[in-house]
Amino acid sequence: MNHINKKNTLLSILLMLPALVSADDLNGANTSWILTSTALVLFMTIPGLSLFYAGLVRSKNVLSVLMQCFTITCVASVVWLVFGYSMSFTAHGSLNQWIGGFDNLFLSQVSRDSMSGDIPESVFVMFQMTFAIITPALVIGGFAERIKFSAMLWFTVLWMILVYFPVCHWVWGGGWLGDKGALDFAGGLVVHITAGVGALVAAIVLGKRNGFPATPLPPHNMTMTVTGAGMLWVGWFGFNGGSALAANGDAGMAILVTHISAAIASLTWMIIEWIKYGKPSVLGIVTGMVAGLGSITPASGYVGPMGAIVIGITAGIVCFAVTNFMKRTLHIDDSLDVFPVHGVGGIIGTLLAGIFVASQFGGIGLAEGISIADQFGVQLTAVAAVIFWTAIASYIVLKVTGIICGLRVTDEQERSGLNITQHEEKGYNL
After folding, report:
1. What percent of the chain stands above pLDDT 90?
2. Residue 430 — pLDDT band, cuts 50, 70, 90?
3. What's the chain's average pLDDT?
4. Cα angle for residues 340, 343, 348 (degrees, 5° grid)
5. Does residue 3 register a pLDDT over 90?
6. Cβ of 109: how many Cβ atoms within 10 Å?
7. Contact assessment for residue 224 and residue 53, using Cβ atoms and an 8 Å cutoff
8. Cis bond leading into 340, ω under 30°?
9. pLDDT at position 13, please?
10. In terms of Cα–Cα distance, which of 85, 247, 267, 264 is closest to 165?
11. Does a structural domain hold residue 17?
């Protein structure tokens, strides 16, 4: 009987060999982690960012923000499918330094068997799609409570074409910034700086909300905002940890430093506010958290805990100062503080990544023959290039959108609220 069992066991192993051989190129652990990370990053947009933003606006506009986040999720997904992935990650001959090609339209070259490293390409496509979704969703915080819904749709599609896809290709798709050695582990350049600068330009072009800054425009539901903030914090582990594209030490360290930076930036913001205004606010601590998360994003796979501490403290101080300067001195109505939190945070993290990547600071170490000064220069070039391109392209997109359908609702529609005037619905029936 034992002899028969041994023969059956040996036969089972032999029958499995073809499957084992065919699976050599696919790493199951890595694939599982990126599948999980993909779900976490999508969770950041819906419901995380949706609730975070919706609580920050007035009740008459709560549905409009939820609708914008939900719709962008759908629209960005389709655009990514049709040509976004191809433009971002497909080689394009002599223009490959600047933009990808159109050889992979409708994901025509992506099959069940195609691979991206040791994970299925379909998983990589979906993971990157979630980044393409959240970036334009972040931008809506710059023009919340006053943009036409149709204008938001046109802006999103055109902005992705002119801003997101090119910058994504520059950094991650084989373009010129990647070739120069620019460090952006999870989206300081690609996501946060583009979103922050795009939101700033949009806020300036559309102008202030009625009553700003003389009339207070407080959040209508901080409970909703804190709920969304918690979802963002958890989802960010997939955002940064998943960008290792493997279940390994880089992913583990990325998650650790992400958490450290978020916690320290939150406390830093809270303490500054406590000292300055006499009381710590819930709005302040959650805004500090987002500043810490956005700042650590580009550096998360390169730095250690020491770098995370410095980045978190810097984010809390600088983002707080810029937020107050923009609102109280410049009177720029970036409604939900996208530029001072995400834009400035992305700049801080991208620049400091060039310093704290060094092994003496606990980072993974600089490339051979590269000094801290050299790497910092590359980071500075990348930041300047992305800011310049995003500002110019965003302005063009806004002007084109204005010609197509107009940008802003009327004063009467703004007073009535976008829930009713854009969607004929109420957020609350009490």
Report:
1. 92
2. confident
3. 94
4. 95
5. no
6. 13
7. no
8. no
9. 43
10. 85
11. no
Using an 8 Å Cβ cutoff, are 264 and 308 in contact?
A: yes
Residue 8 pLDDT > 80, yes or no? no
Tokens of 350: 């991208």
Structure confidence at residue 24 (pLDDT): 52
- Domain total in the chain: 1
Domain CATH code at residue 100: 1.10.3430.10
Identify which has the larger pLDDT, 379 or 10: 379
Residue 21 lies in a domain: no
Residue 6 within any structural domain of the chain: no
Q: Are 30 and 244 in contact (CB under 8 A)?
A: no
**Rounded to whole angstroms, how far apart are CA atoms 424 and 52?**
23
The mean per-residue pLDDT over the stretch 135-145 comes to: 97
CB contact at 8 A, 337 and 141: yes
List, in order, residues 6 or more apart from 45 with CB less than 8 Å away: 69, 72, 73, 130, 133, 134, 137
**Per-residue pLDDT averaged across 343-348, rounded?**
98
SS (H, E, C) the chain: CHHHHHHHHHHHHHHHHHHHHHCCCCCHHHHHHHHHHHHHHHHHHHHHHHHHHHHHCCHHHHHHHHHHHHHHHHHHHHHHHHHHHHHHHCCCHHHCCCCCCCCCHHHCCCCCCCEECCEEHHHHHHHHHHHHHHHHHHHHHHCCCCECHHHHHHHHHHHHHHHHHHHHHHHHCCCHHHHHCCCCCCCHHHHHHHHHHHHHHHHHHHCCCCCCCCCCCCCCCHHHHHHHHHHHHHHHHHHHHHHHCCCCHHHHHHHHHHHHHHHHHHHHHHHHHHHHHCCCCHHHHHHHHHHHHHHHHHHCCCCCHHHHHHHHHHHHHHHHHHHHHHHHHHCCCCCCCHHHHHHHHHHHHHHHHHHHCCHHHCCCCCCCCCCHHHHHHHHHHHHHHHHHHHHHHHHHHHHHHHHHHCCECCHHHHHHCHHHHHHCCCCCCC
Residue 388, C-beta contacts closer than 8 angstroms, at least 6 positions apart: none
- The whole domain housing 194 covers 26-423
